[in-house]
Amino acid sequence: MLKKVEKIAFISQTLDRLFPDPPIPLDHSDPFTLLVAVLLSAQCTDAMVNRVTPALFRRAPDPFKMSQLAPEEILSIISSCGLAPTKAKNIHALSRILVERYQGVVPASFEELESFPGVGHKTASVVMSHAFQVPAFPVDTHIHRLATRWGLSDGSSVEKTEADLKRLFPKKRWELLHLQIIYFGRKYCPARNHDPLQCPICSVCAR
After folding, report:
1. Marked catalytic residue, from 140, 160, 164, 166
2. Cβ–Cβ < 8 Å for 143, 178
3. Whole-model pTM?
4. Domain architecture of the chain: domains with CATH
5. Contact (CB, 8 A) for 15 and 184
6. Is 89 one of the annotated active-site residues of the chain?
7. Residues 93-115 pLDDT 10s
8. Can 140 be counted among the known catalytic residues?
């Protein structure tokens, strides 16, 4: 049984070996397009988001043009995403707020981002981390599941998982680890039909 310090070191070394430079899985070109893409990714795969955003961003690459589209027009483009009607309304509303209050500039603030329609803490964390390089550890379903499997958190809540991971790993690694764990979960540690004995990390670190 590995000690906690040994487990953290093993996980970090394994992720660095398997995914040394993982890309951001959502296609975007700036903080605004990243914000919209992350909002769309709720209950929707990244692959599906990347299929719909090129057409959306051709029509409206910035908050000014997005706010000029009716929610129904946005919906017609993103309809294949889960919760599309609500997301269309939220994208339109947050674009109007960006234009009216922020001159079209996405603010680099957790508090301000989380005040936008449809933007929760996880979405704000992704934008703060990847668009503004502000230390954050966004926790999605993959990260929540793996942190529990590896005994890094108790699985009681996403908030608890985020706090535990921030405590266990140095701040300078948060952005990279967020991406590494997502890719690891997809390739080696799925929610279903997972064989822990064949998993590069669970075989050593699973509870």
Report:
1. 140
2. yes
3. 0.94
4. 4-23+136-205 (1.10.1670.10), 31-132 (1.10.340.30)
5. yes
6. no
7. 999 999 999 999 999 999 999 99
8. yes
